Amino acid sequence: MNHDLVKANLNLHAVLKNLEDITVFDREMKELISSWNVSIKFIVKGGPSAIARFSGGRCTVEPGAGGKASIILWFLSPAHLNRMFDGTANPVPLKGFTKLGFLSKEFPKLTDRLSYYLKPDDELIKNKSYLEMNTRLTLNTAAFAVPEILEGDPVGRKISSKIPDGTAVMRILPSFHSVSITFSNGAAIAQKGDTVKPTAVMEMKNAAVANGFLNGKTDAFTAIASGDVVIKGLIPVLDNMSLLLDRIQHYLS
Amino acid sequence: MKIYKYNATQKLFRRAAKVIPCGIYGHYSPAPLVPATDYPFFTSKAKGSRIWDIDGNEFIDYMCAYGPMVTGYGNPKVDAAAQKQAKMGNCVTGVPPVMVELAEYMTDLIPSADWAFFAKNGGDVTNYAVMIARAATERKKIIMVSGGYHGVSPWMQGEGHHGVMDDDKKNVLTVKWNDIAGFEKTVSDNRGEIACFISSPYHHPTFADNEFPAEGYWQKIEEICRREGILIITDDIRAGFRLHMGGSAEYFGYKSDLTCFCKAIANGYPISALTGTEALKSAASKVFYTGSYWFSAEPMAAALANLREMKKINAPKLMHDTGKKLLDGMVKIASTYGYDLKVSGAPSMPYLRITNDPSLILHQEWCGECTKRGAYFTSHHNWFISTAHNDKDIRRTWDIVDDAFKAIKKKYGDEY
């Protein structure tokens, strides 16, 4: 799997997935989509596909080309999709010509907000609500990137057989946010939320600690040694997952 | 029972993290200590079977510096020999005569050894052994056991790990422990290309039960290796002299071509050794291999004194018996709380796991609770028993174990 394809998978399955949480936790975006009744399918030639559905004030983003959509956006290649995520290209609308106004005016408000939250700077991160959203989205992106890295990245493929089966949970305390990643036979499935009997756990003390830890701004070993981050259970699962997470930066800046 | 606190430890670690990668790196890293806040990171003094941390907490040490301590911290006989040598000279121009004396002693002690070579760490000699095997056979590939640990050179580390390139692992084949059929197939698939099989004498991975060789395993491996011209390298870094004074190959009844020793040689003085057969002496001579401190005399004098002492007191039996008594009692205490404490590996270097919770979280909490009460247990790595551990230590440990089980039972009730 080449670099562009892995990056496209990450963009569509890990980054875009964050629309779900932005439209829940950002009041303005929640209001924005409250009346939307639209579904947008992203189809990449030789690459991934996904569908974002907006209905009843709720957004869901799921992988796959199945199911009907009111708008279909087509991309010539994984690189084309990646350029769109970088803001340097536009998709080819295949269906939904009557909704071009929505695509050019309304939908970008949401995607611009996504970019805003995923590209922090030193000033923005001082704002508590911004930090919390960035942390939430970073954790989501990390979790949903793991299956893609495991399948497509050269390092991921090498270590896939070495990860013990089971579910790893990454939690931000106190009850702020959590994600679960289930490993089975060298593949992984990510989901938001906790699990009852995890085989490995990474608990971060609060959103600020998690933000520094997940973004590599604080020393991971110091965080663990001080108890700001607690790891427990089958540590080899977390060790290998850490190698996978380290690979994300090769694709997403 | 008093529960330890680690304020000074945490304070010093914060200083360490500013100037040392990871704060504390490698196998001493706090990361696998779960939870890290239940453990001391810095030791201010040690004596016999005990260590004291910088907060003044006293521990019965069941890690023994991860193996090197074998006859007790500050063993007077070993320290006296080392100090006597140090007064005469340690790292000097020219080789100290004690090196020859130590080599003679080890070749007498270890039946498979016709020569001995000295370095500093285990990884020095496992790497050297592989180079010798490649030089002797003119073959490039090596076989190791999946989950086996032979040091930190790139070829020894896992694929995908930081700093490890694809080429580093290109000629490293892996087999499962105790899998004769898998070994046969690997040999058959790579006939004429395999220089050596490097393995610990029994399987002692981290985070997993330790496994002894199945009946006839080593004998069958030996048969295949002799037939195919593959050399056997025994990585006896961890188990060496804790099972048998002649090396673990003697304990398990096979002949090793090259044997790597380190941890238990000198009771903490820095030295490792590779021993080998006469047939490989020429290849060993041709491989250029050395280090700045490999001729230091003090550790050699310590090694000589330590090995003599271990032989005199039959240290492997002593450590086995102490370990067995300790562990039998612990298993019994665990059962009174409804916990199944599984012991694997040799009693002198046991691996323990509470089987009630396969995620190991319960076991990790229990090890942490024991450590906070003064019995230093790690949850991911085999422990080590020394000849300095005594009945007083055992009785105190049983009390701690009991109190720690009480604490986790109170927390989890009948959940497990």
A few lines on this structure:
The complex is a heterodimer of chains A (253) and B (416). Chain A has helices at residues 3-15, 19-25, 27-33, 78-85, 100-118, 128-152, 154-159, 207-214, 220-226, 235-248; strands at 38-44, 49-55, 58-63, 71-75, 92-95, 166-172, 177-184, 187-192, 200-204, 229-233.
Account of the protein in words:
The complex is a heterodimer of chains A (253) and B (416). With 253 residues, chain A is an alpha+beta fold. Helices cover 45% and strands 24% of the residues of chain A. Chain A contains 10 helices and 10 strands. In chain A, the strands form 2 sheets. Chain A has a 5-stranded mixed sheet with strand order 3-2-1-4-5. In chain A, a hairpin with a 2-residue loop joins strand 2 (49-55) and strand 3. In chain A, helix 1 packs across helix 4 (78-85), helix 1 (3-15) packs across helix 6 and helix 6 (128-152) crosses helix 8 (207-214). Chain A is globular, with a radius of gyration of 18 Å. Chain A starts with a helix and ends in a 5-residue tail after the last helix. By secondary structure, chain B is α/β, with parallel strands linked by helices. Chain B is 38% helix and 14% strand. The longest helix of chain B is centred in the last third of the chain and has 22 residues, at 315-336. Chain B is globular, with a radius of gyration of 22 Å. The mean pLDDT of chain B is 97. Chain A binds chain B through residues 155-156, 158-159, 162, 166, 197-201, 219, 221-222, 224-227, 230-236, 243, 246, and chain B through 10, 13-14, 17, 22-24, 29-32, 34-37, 41, 158-162, 207, 358-361, 364-365, 380.
